Amino acid sequence: MEDISLEQILYNKPGFLIRRLQQIGITVFLEETAEFDTTPVQYGALAAIRAYPNIDQLRLAQAIGFDRNTISGVVERLEAKGLVCRSTGTDRRTKLLSLTPEGAALLEQMYPGTERAQARILKGLTEAEKATFIKMLQRVVEANNEISRVPVSSPKRDI
Known about the structure:
Blueprint: H1 6-11, H2 14-32, H3 40-51, E1 55-56, H4 57-64, H5 68-80, E2 84-88, E3 95-99, H6 101-121, H7 127-144, H8 155-158
InterPro entries: HTH_MarR-typ (IPR000835), MarR/SlyA-like (IPR039422), WH-like_DNA-bd_sf (IPR036388), WH_DNA-bd_sf (IPR036390)
Protein name: Transcriptional regulator
Organism: Pandoraea oxalativorans
């Protein structure tokens, strides 16, 4: 391996490039939404709760690809910020999640910044390349969803 360059070993590998793009994506998201003190995971949870009012925590975790323990902490932080409220479902153990008016307003206020972040992440691509890249990412993610530690599943199928 003496004559193999770092480009051959690392810099042109999908795993490395995906990790770097995720690092860049988080940085850009946080820059564009800094005034709201909300992480990408919190934003995703809020967006899913908005899309599926009264979703339970397990289905929320499945909808955005996070394990139960992680989503539990996310929901606790969102509730502490007054952005989400929990109510008891028909099964007393099930907690249903909904946005508070403050949570809905925050999503609305953050949206322009999240759109700017998405545009910045894809900087360097033409509009046609952006559409192709997104479709390709979707195909790769869908093809590998089931091997993920937490496969994503749409609440629409389950609720």
